[in-house]
Amino acid sequence: MVVNQIPFEEFHMLLHRQGLRVAIGPFNVCIHTSYKPLIEQLYLLYSHYRITQDEIAEFHVRIVTERSLRNPFKRNIRFLLDGQSPFESFPQEQALAVLEWGINLAIAVRVNHLLLLHSAVVEKNGHVILFPAWPGSGKTTLCTVLSYQGFRLFSDEFGLMDTQQQLFLPIPRLMPLKNESIAVIRNYLPDIVMGRPIPNTQKGTVAHVRPPEKSILLSKHTCKARWIIFPKWIADTPVKIEAISDSEAFMMLASNAFNYEALGATGFCAVADLIRSCDCFKLVYSDFDSVMEVLHQLTNET
Amino acid sequence: MKLDLPPHCQILLNGLTNPACLTRYCDSDWELLIRMARRVKLLGRLGLLVKEYGTWDQVPPRVSTQLTSGLVQVEKLQQLNRWELNRVLWALNDFDTSIIALKGIAYSLAAIPHASGRLSVDLDLLVHQSDLADIESLLVVKGWKHRPLSAYDEHYYRVWSHEIPPLVHAERETEVDIHHTLIPLTNRVKIDPKLLFDAAIPVKNSTIRLLSPVDMVIHCAVNLFQNNELANDLRDLLDLHDLMVFFSERTPDFWTWLIDRSNQLKLSKTVFYGLYFSQLIFNTPVPGKALVRLHARPGRLKLWIMHRLVPLALFPQHPDKPMLSASLARLLMYLRSHLIRMPLYILLPHLIYKSLRKIRFKSRKSRS
């Protein structure tokens, strides 16, 4: 059963009463909220997720509304993980962004049975491409374009790696575009479903892109990685892709992971094996068409 | 008096004390168990129990991944703790003093069963008060720093507390808590650290020392029933249980020594609570005559009240349905812990300061 197969009223009831359980990649997330505007947004943006009411959920999250301390006439929303509040309250309009950040945070701090790389991940021809990058490098924007142009979305944020089998696990979540990227993507991909832009968040204006239905449908299909590409968007530069050394790739990948250190030797061996089995590149680009060309060339060579 | 626990607490307790029953747990029991165990820092412990009992393969996959995550976290924190201790001992190598390891790291060094499943975040050490200033400045010279503190907090640590403000090395994250005694100085109950140092035990191939077994048990009880607020402190009561089971099996006279020492240190009431609740909740085999030999014991009414309140505070709340009675128990335990920790003329300004700061902090947060 998928979210868009149940009527809105039932969806509303689930979120309000026992909590809605959806499969997001390898995890089940149980979401509780009674905040109607959020429920409406989720009904649209979560429409392809599988409902898993009878299964164990790893994450139990809630968005609750509360009165603002400074302005008693205003209401704020708060994110709760297992009843605990990891951050302060936010204006109501930001409910969706806060929910998404909260789930990311929960994954990042709790999951240690997988290696968590900080990377966008897509698949083509049965092979995974990793795009590890720091915030602000444009990886979400690039990932959005790729996932609607013939690549299968794994994640715009988490490279989830099963270290024993060297496999990557898809975790297709909403892709939060920031600031200028919102208009850029609207123009480039006019048909995709995107949530309302949320202004004044910690990261400026954010709008969430719904992941492609097919990527969610295939989210149990794991793959091995073949390419690691460190992307950087720089205005008005011609596209350039160049190979980098394994050692450089290792340092960049390991120093930008969520739980590399916590995994100790397991993490070290996993990243070393990963680098050995992949071709590593640096990519500079400014327009999507030329990037697509370069990537198609790269993936079809094999 | 019997233990009367709400059903969700029973799920946690059975899981921790009787791994055999876990094979009968349904998915929703498991889900609740994992959430509550994590809340009271016992997820790693639970993972270790399931592994030891050999039923890992029968656990639902969505549970075993979470247990693995818990175990990885525990292992990493213990490694960081060991490394921090190594660095502290290195930094103080030329300084002639004796240092006692406390709590988590001490349980590992003493090879207490299940210590490898304990979530230990900070490194706790006990030093001589007379060496404290030298040790602190040596560590600061070698790269440890205090976190920024308000003038009030600085005063709190320096004048009233049993430890100095936490130290963290610039390149690492593990907090080092250096104690000069085991009970806050404002507490009516006092302890003479010299007695602890005199009885301390060396560790093989290291300059670090450990409290003697009975002192280790007493410290654990003191921490729970004198220093802490008890909310979600089930892990610490389980530590106490582990310590007593381990030492009493190895040392025939353990109980006699424990009682004598508690009486000598004038901590018999605190130790009474430790023995009482460890036995009540974890079935620790405390001999009946041990309790009677303690010089100070709570009166019947007081014990009846504590019997009602302590388990409700120690066990985690149901994550979706918090109970009012448990919230009340926690509030009362919080007040109790402060009342015994400080005289009223310090306590009242302290609580006012803390509440004001909380409000200011909250409004600053919501402004930013």
From TrEMBL, chain A:
InterPro entries the record matches: HprK-rel_A, P-loop_NTPase
UniProt GO molecular function: kinase activity
Protein keywords: Kinase, Transferase
Keyword DNA-binding annotated: no
Official protein name in the record: Hpr(Ser) kinase/phosphatase
Species this protein is from: Nitrosomonas marina
From TrEMBL, chain B:
UniProt cross-references to Pfam families, sorted A to Z: NTP_transf_5
Organism domain of life: Bacteria
A molecular-function term among this protein's GO annotations: transferase activity
Keywords assigned by UniProt, alphabetized: Transferase
Keyword Transferase (UniProt): yes
Name of the molecule in the record: Uncharacterized nucleotidyltransferase
Organism: Nitrosomonas marina
Taxonomic path: Bacteria, Pseudomonadati, Pseudomonadota, Betaproteobacteria, Nitrosomonadales
